[in-house]
Design a protein that fits this description.
Keywords: Cytoplasm, Methyltransferase, S-adenosyl-L-methionine, Transferase
Strand order of the largest sheet: 5-4-3-6-7-8-9
Pfam families: PCMT (PF01135)
CATH superfamily: Vaccinia Virus protein VP39
EC number: 2.1.1.77
Number of helices: 7
Helix content: 25-40%
Subcellular location: Cytoplasm
CATH topology: Rossmann fold
CATH class: Alpha Beta
Number of domains: 1
Family: Belongs to the methyltransferase superfamily. L-isoaspartyl/D-aspartyl protein methyltransferase family.
Length: about 220
């Protein structure tokens, strides 16, 4: 993408931040700065680039979506990242949420179960020059034990928490996910402590379902 083409998205991106995020209560300055700088248009399908900064989720193939900008910012704000954290993301998708997280923590470890999306995210993140990210194509419900424990775990598909995630979380760490089924979810933040965990409930929302297993291009 040429410099001129990239600059042409600056104004809609800043409008997105002002009209969709600040106006709806996103106040974390670091989150707003990350959303202002990550080029969302590089993570959507070419045919949908003109809608990249609209207040809507968009299809990315394989029955998945890129979440609306507000939900990405809202979930990121609820993690309350300071910059030193190691974060596990369950559900890389096209890599947009991954890119936002990478601007706010030390390293992101992200798992995607659909091989075509895993490869697409890898290409997107490389093009957008996000270097502090490690990607894996695997069943996200199993977590990523090699690099545990994590300071935070964020889940970008709707369902119910895997016990493995809490096991792979540091004491004092947070697990954030859209909990529920049938397309009716609610953001839940669980904070791990020495005796178990505490939990807080936030926005109602709708996410694609959290599924088990790995879907490769060979079995599609």
């Amino acid at each position: 993408m040429t410099l001129h083409a990239s600059l042409s998205y600056e104004r809609p991106r800043q409008r997105m931040v002002t009209d969709q995020l600040v106006a709806r209560g996103i106040v974390d300055a670091r989150v707003l700065a990350a959303m202002s700088s990550v080029p969302r248009h590089m993570f959507v399908d070419p045919a949908l680039v003109s809608r990249a900064y609209h207040d809507a989720s968009l299809p990315i193939g394989s029955g998945q979506t890129i979440s609306q900008p507000y939900m990405v910012a809202r979930m990121t704000q609820l993690l309350a990242l300071k910059g030193h954290e190691r974060v596990l993301e369950i559900g890389t998708g096209c890599g947009y949420q991954t890119a936002v997280l990478s601007r706010l923590c030390r390293r992101v470890y992200s798992i995607e179960r659909i091989s075509a999306l895993h490869e697409r995210a890898r290409q997107n993140l490389r093009a957008a020059r996000h270097a502090n990210v490690m990607l894996k194509c695997a069943d996200g419900r199993l977590g990523w034990e090699d690099y545990a424990p994590y300071d935070a775990i964020i889940v970008t598909a709707g369902g119910f928490a895997s016990d493995v995630w809490l096991q792979q979380l540091k004491t004092g760490g947070v697990l954030l996910l859209p909990e529920g089924d049938g397309g009716a979810h609610r953001l839940v933040r669980r904070t791990k402590n020495t005796h178990g965990y505490s939990e807080e409930y936030f926005d109602a929302c709708t996410f694609v379902p959290l599924l088990e297993g790995v879907e490769s291009s060979l079995n599609r």
